[in-house]
Amino acid sequence: MTTPSSTGSAGTTAGSSWRRACAVSDLADESALGVEIDGEPVCLVRSGGRYYAVRDECSHAEVMLSEGEVENGLIECWLHGSRFDLTTGEPTSLPAIDPVPTYPVTIDGDDVLVDLHTNPKRG
Questions:
Q1: CA 119 from chain center: how many Å?
Q2: Cα dist from 106 to 9, 36, 52, 54, 63, whole Å
Q3: Is the pLDDT of residue 64 over 80?
């Protein structure tokens, strides 16, 4: 999770691990969007004006979290109702007991950038 900031380039320079995920305008508040970055399924979320990225797969079942409801910094798996804290990836309700990976997010102009490779939080 991060508040809007600038990273300089759009994450495409040599040695940079930031990747453009979507435009800021693609995410309304309290919404989620599923994308693929470097072959990984990523769920981008905007909640309370903040941007988050988590792996787009519930840790309880192979279900896309991006299809779930977002509210107050949590995302709910639409199939079994597990909710995950978007900051930590930790489940806040059963049946999930394992966290989902979270990734750093930053804003560069109108771009939402995600870093899958530098210190991803595994819950």
A1: 14
A2: 11, 17, 9, 14, 26
A3: yes
